[in-house]
Amino acid sequence: MPPLASIPSPHSGVIDLGPLHIHMYGLMLLVAIAACVWLTGVRWTRLGGDWDLVLRVAVWGVAFGIVGARIYHDITSWNEVPDHWWGAFAVWQGGLGVWGGILFGCIAGAVVIYRSGESVRLFADAVAPGLLIAQGIGRWGNWFNQELFGKPTNLPWGLEIDERHRPPQYLLSDTFHPTFLYEFIYDLGMAGVLLLIGWRFRIKPPGLFALYVAFYTFGRTFEELLRVDPSHHFLGERLNFWVSVVVCVCSVAFFVWWQFFHEGGDQPTVRRSKPREIPKGPAMAVPKGRVRPRR
């Protein structure tokens, strides 16, 4: 029985504007990056930082993040890599592993921040909500590509998938769980929670970043139970299910230890702009014998 209502999918992930071919997957990545940079810049400048560092971190973090995301995908899903010389680099066809992207991007960003003399931990807390928003927006690229959806469903919000994009075992199913939409809503909601926690409580940096990792991986664990795209399995579950579980437990454990048991080296939650120092030196330069009389 066909569903009473459903969410349609675009029949193509490319929009042609004359001679221009716009890949919507890549466009959504650009929108996601812009949103993350904007929110991080607002938060960082409120902490006394400057936009220049945010932009430099974005340039290097995004570049290394894309490389890391593609490397992770090529290693863990080598059977999905197009059989061409350019197959390993075909990011416009999807295939970016978020774990590799976050790891490589954060390492590159941390190096830039450290070399600038700023606090890596404080910047990590500033960028945490923006990363969640970026990951949520980026999932709309999967909608355009008709990929990474969930199991068949007849719910009113079931996602229509063309037959050529369906797994062989689900060729007769019409609608599937829109996991891209679930993650989008969840990521934006958790970004709001992070902002609220950072505003309401004094969290030791990088506590908010640890919560970001915990929130994302907690939701991703349930998403992996729904998805039906090809994946390697371990102990009966998808590989990324176990990655999410392990990373979530480690991030929660780190947050608890860092906030309640770690001593020393704490940084203030709110960073104030440093007051401008008054230059030290002679109060005035008056030649000898020409001292001004007091009035």
Give the C-alpha Rg: 25 Å
Structural class: mainly alpha
Regarding quaternary structure, how should these chains be classified? single chain
Q: Give helix and strand order, one letter per element, not per position.
A: EEHHHHHEEHHEEH
What helical percentage do the residues reach?
A: 40-55%
Number of strand elements: 6
Amino- and carboxy-terminal Cα gap: 99 Å
Rounded average pLDDT: 84
* The number of domains: 1
Count the helices. How many? 8
Low confidence ranges: 272-295
The major β-sheet equals: 2 strands, antiparallel
Beta percentage is 5-15%
Shape: globular
Strand order in space, largest sheet: 1-2
Write the layout of secondary structure elements.
Layout: E1 14-17, E2 20-23, H1 24-46, H2 51-76, H3 98-116, H4 120-138, H5 140-145, E3 159-160, E4 175-176, H6 179-200, H7 207-226, E5 233-234, E6 237-238, H8 239-260
Antiparallel strand pairs: 1-2, 3-4, 5-6
Helix pairs in contact: 1-2, 1-4, 2-3, 3-4, 4-6, 4-7, 6-7, 7-8
